Amino acid sequence: MTKHIVVATDLSPRADRAVARAVLLAREHGARLSLLHVLDDAMPDDVLRHIQPRTTEHLERFAASAAKGLDYKVLPCVGDPTETLLDWVGDLSPSLLVLGTHRPRTLMDGLRETTSQRVVRLTNCPVLVVKERADQPYDTILAATDFSPSATAALNLGHALAPKAAMIPVHALYLPYEGLAGHSDQARHALHAAMIADAHTADAQWRAGHALPVTLGHTQFPTGGAWMQLNRTAHESRAQLITAGAHGRAGAHRALLGSLATDLLRDPPCDVLIARA
């Protein structure tokens, strides 16, 4: 049950969407809401002194309008934006952290982590990255699954946030040895059939061994890269949310972020919820 939601905002239009979704979730679940805004302490002191009171006033007015009727508080502060956010998450221990999408930076995005990637990597708190407008509750959720505890936790949290939403599990099949199967259609078909059979067995064991939502549909097994298949399925199904584990079975170390989570956070097809087991 979501009892306390923290939403980080830089007062940009991207962050406004995150605030709107956080407010909608807080209303639906009767949760407390904290709105956090961090002024970067790398700015000159005279600039900070000038804009800090104005920014705080704007944040308070914005919160009073957006979160009217909710149990909320505003948290204006100064510091390194990512480190300060992580400190607050550690102190508050929220049920959910909500962020907007990052500002695209063609060169830098290929060289270093985005804020959401770093936050997900360094905290145990589930993170919801909001891309779309929060006009209504989620009604269709794609659950990226490799049948790992982390993916299962994300799926169940997605259901808790939107219990009436249809849930579509997606397990992408990547055929790593397809090139070694020769040019024979028969050989490629045999390889694909073997992987499909293994995936169906894993799916059956997963369903038998876990308490999963009753709204969970049949698992889809598209062939190809996970991000590409989720992106395609999200558009075809008009899903508003994708859930995924922070890491798969092979990369369960807390300091690691799985390749799918990394790709989803860098280029989300829709809203994305990342959680750990």
- Record the strand order, biggest sheet: 3-2-1-4-5-9-8-6-7
**Overall shape:** elongated
Largest beta sheet, briefly?
A: 9 strands, mixed
Mean pLDDT: 89
CATH class of the largest domain equals Alpha Beta
The total count of strands amounts to 9
**DSSP summary: helix tally:** 8
> What proportion of the residues form beta strands (DSSP E)?
15-25%
Domains (count): 2
- Radius of gyration based on Cα positions: 20 Å
Q: Roughly how much helix do the residues carry, as a percent range?
A: 40-55%
CATH architecture of the largest domain: 3-Layer(aba) Sandwich
What do we call the CATH homologous superfamily of the largest domain? HUPs
CATH topology label of the largest domain: Rossmann fold
The poorly predicted ranges are 251-255
Oligomer: single chain
In short:
The chain is α/β, with parallel strands linked by helices. It has helices at 13-29, 45-66, 81-92, 115-122, 149-161, 185-209, 226-237, 259-266; strands spanning 4-8, 32-40, 72-79, 96-100, 127-130, 140-144, 166-170, 241-245, 271-275.
